[in-house]
Design brief:
The chain is mainly alpha-helical. The chain is built from 18 helices and no strands. Helix 8 runs antiparallel to helix 14, helix 11 runs parallel beside helix 15 and helix 11 crosses helix 16. It is globular, with a radius of gyration of 22 Å. 52% of the residues are buried.
Length: 481
């Protein structure tokens, strides 16, 4: 059994302060996610000297580790009984080791062999992702408990997305303009090692502060959250419950769709620096402007998501935003490959890229918010069938989706680089045109196949506003809400 209905019903409304303190936790995970997906390959390949296939391979091994760990942490947090509730102990414990591991990831020893550096990368990366799971899975699992309404959940996730954007795009702007700034003579920048120390130190401190603020700031809600069942838990019993909970059509559909989208997004992020510096021959100042357009577009997407959810429903809102976003994303590169796009170095090209970045970020943010809200709605649907609250287990899917961005997605990016025969120690403006053409001809079909599969899968999602409200009414009649 979960918390008694009377305990839940007497919970005061979630105030704006509590919403903001919950939402600030999104800063930590997306700072890490954007750092790994945008900088890890180019740092360990072009700066440290590891082959891109090695970096991608380590990320894929870490993804297998995550595929086991994330649902396990979710299930354990669903069943934890403590004075700090089910979620907050995990969140609190993660703060310091998560920050320390992030710092060491970007400061590998100099003079080590490739084999030793690969082991170092693996240890640091596994540590970062392990403690990210300790925070992110319980943190996302709080959403269905903090707010119940169909639209209210979208609004809370949209608020969290604001901090997600500042943690990711905001920190990337700071990296390009300050920590990893390119000098006037072309030295420094993302291809120089020196700036990564201050970048990683600042990132580690932000991660630590965001986790502590979000954990302590929502602790007053613990008495009103669902409690774990008071019963013995065996491994076999836990495994049986996992299978029963995850055997849900809506969950399977939205999870598979999210995985395809995440791999596509990870491939895009992993190649952003390569495409910007070598394909479009942009300066780091121009890349920072694009990152700013991404941030402002993402904020526009925060405003757009609730509107689409109310007008079209969450499912069709995701379908519209995802399809339009895909077309917007591939247009500039497609035009270049067809010989129809503006030349590198022209103001027209930069205007096109800024417009594309803003529009794509808007649509991607709206789609991501609505997808996360869809997953949250699966919680009550599963509870109707199983009689158990399993937010941690179900929301671990969304955590795993994020890691797919920096796992399978970045592996896909490194595979595209290898297939295109992209050179090591490359210089802007000196990469052969044939290599850049192969890069584009490989990238576009890959992205279309991945995102197209995600879009088609979502047509099978079967929870709408009416069904969600019916699920809530069924649970109320059982005395569970």
């Amino acid at each position: 059994m979960t918390t008694a209905a009377t305990d839940v019903e007497r919970a005061p409304p979630l105030g704006l302060g509590a919403k903001l303190l919950y939402a600030v936790g999104g800063t930590a995970t997306n700072l890490k996610h954007r750092a790994i997906s945008s900088f890890l390959v180019i740092f360990y390949n072009q700066v440290v000297g590891l082959p891109p296939q090695v970096v991608g391979g380590i990320l894929m091994i870490a993804l297998v580790f995550d595929a086991v760990l994330d649902p396990l942490i979710g299930q354990v947090s669903d069943n934890l009984r403590s004075r700090w509730g089910r979620r907050h102990p995990f969140m609190l414990v993660s703060a310091a080791p998560y920050a320390v591991a992030f710092f060491f990831l970007w400061n590998p020893p100099e003079g080590w062999s490739h084999g030793a550096l690969a082991i170092y990368l693996a240890i640091c990366l596994f540590s970062v992702r392990f403690f990210d799971t300790f925070f992110e899975v319980p943190h996302q699992a709080l959403v269905p408990e903090l707010v119940k309404g169909y639209d209210e959940r979208t609004n809370l996730i949209a608020l969290r997305q604001i901090f997600v954007l500042f943690g990711g795009a905001g920190m990337m702007i700071m990296a390009l303009q300050f920590f990893l700034k390119e000098n006037a003579d072309g030295s420094g920048g993302v291809l120089a090692r020196d700036g990564y120390f201050l970048y990683s130190m600042t990132g580690a401190l932000i991660i630590f502060a965001a986790i502590i603020l979000s954990t302590v700031g929502t602790a007053h809600r613990i008495p009103y959250l669902s409690t774990a069942p008071n019963r013995p838990i065996t491994f076999r019993g836990m495994l049986s419950e996992v299978v029963a909970t995850l055997n849900n059509r809506a969950f399977i559909v939205v999870s598979l769709s999210g995985l395809f989208i995440a791999v596509a997004a990870g491939a895009q992020s992993g190649l952003d620096m390569y495409v910007g510096i070598y394909f479009w021959e942009l300066s780091q100042s121009q890349l920072a402007v694009l990152a700013t357009m991404s941030l402002t577009g993402g904020l526009a997407g925060v405003a757009l998501a609730p509107v689409l959810g109310r007008m079209l429903g969450k499912k069709y809102g995701v379908l519209l935003a995802s399809t339009t976003g895909l077309l917007v994303h591939i247009t500039p590169m497609s035009l270049r490959l067809l010989g129809l796009g503006p030349e590198n170095g022209t103001p027209v090209l930069f205007l096109v890229l800024c417009s594309q970045e803003f529009a794509h970020a808007t649509l991607a943010a709206a789609s991501g918010i609505l997808t996360a809200s869809l997953i949250a709605d699966v919680v009550e649907d599963a509870e109707v069938r199983t009689g158990r609250r399993s937010e941690g287990l179900l929301l671990s899917a969304n955590g795993l989706v994020r890691k797919m961005v920096s796992g399978a997605g970045v592996f896909t990016a490194t595979t595209i680089l290898a297939f295109s025969q992209f050179p090591d120690d490359a210089k802007r403006g000196q990469v052969p045109e044939s290599v850049l053409t192969n890069l584009g001809l490989t990238y576009i079909p890959t992205i279309v196949a991945l995102q197209g599969s995600a879009i088609l899968l979502l047509f099978a999602f079967n929870i709408n506003r009416r069904k969600h409200e019916a699920n809530l009414e069924t649970l109320r009649s059982r005395g569970l809400h």
